[in-house]
Design brief:
This protein is of the alpha/beta class. It has 2 domains: about 40 residues; about 110 residues, Glutaredoxin. The protein is built from 3 helices and 6 strands; from the N terminus they run αββαββαββ. It has a 6-stranded mixed beta sheet, with helices on one face. β2, α2 and β3 form a beta-alpha-beta unit. The radius of gyration is 23 Å and the shape is elongated.
Length: about 170
C-alpha cells in the first residue's frame, strides 16, 4: 500500500466537497425545473385588460400576432423586425404587435427600430407578469397568434413564421 503525502488528505476533502456541492446544485436545479413544469399554467388568452397599453392598436378585427419582446434582447427585436418585413407585402397581413415582458418598470419609450412598420395590434407592457407567471412562458421572441376573440391559435418560437412553420 502506498502512503499518502501530507497534502493529499486536504485535496481529497476539497474534491469531495466540490463534488457534493455540484451534486446539490444539480439536484436543486432539477427540483426547481420539475416544480415549474408541474405547476398548472393557463392557456394564453388575449385580454387587453391584463396588460398596460403603450401604443394603441389600430386594427382590432381579425387575427393578431403578438411577439413577446424583452427590450434588452436584440434577438427577439430582430425577430420582430423580420416578421414585420415578411408579412408587410401580404394582401391581408395579420395585425402585428408586441408584449413587452420582464420589464420591471413601465418603459419610457418603445425603441424597437421597426423602420416605419406599424404595430397594428399595438404595444403592451406586461406589468403583472402574465406572460411568465400566468402563461408559464420563458422564451423571448415567441409569437402568439390570437383570433379576433382573443383565443390562442398557435404559439411559435423565435425565428419561425407562425402560419407556415418555415424558418425566417
Amino acid at each position: 500500500m502506498k502512503s499518502r503525502g501530507r497534502g493529499a488528505l486536504p485535496l481529497e476533502r476539497a474534491a469531495t466537497l466540490s463534488l457534493a456541492l455540484a451534486v446539490a446544485t444539480l439536484a436543486a436545479l432539477g427540483i426547481a425545473w420539475w416544480r415549474d413544469g408541474a405547476r398548472p399554467y393557463a392557456t394564453p388568452v388575449w385580454e387587453t385588460s391584463r396588460f398596460v397599453q403603450l401604443a394603441p392598436a389600430t386594427e382590432t378585427r381579425g387575427e393578431r400576432w403578438l411577439v413577446a419582446v424583452n427590450l434588452r434582447c436584440p434577438h427577439c427585436k430582430e425577430h420582430l423586425r423580420s416578421l414585420a418585413r415578411r408579412i408587410a407585402s401580404r394582401a391581408h397581413p395579420p395585425a402585428l404587435g408586441v408584449i413587452v415582458v420582464d420589464q420591471p418598470a413601465r418603459p419610457a419609450r418603445l425603441d424597437l427600430d421597426l423602420s416605419g412598420v406599424s404595430l397594428a395590434a399595438g404595444a403592451w407592457w406586461d406589468s403583472a407578469q402574465v406572460w411568465r407567471d400566468g402563461w408559464g412562458r420563458r422564451v423571448y421572441g415567441e409569437t402568439f397568434r390570437f383570433d379576433a376573440r382573443g383565443h390562442l391559435i398557435t404559439a411559435t418560437p423565435v425565428g419561425t413564421l407562425p402560419d407556415s412553420g418555415r424558418r425566417l
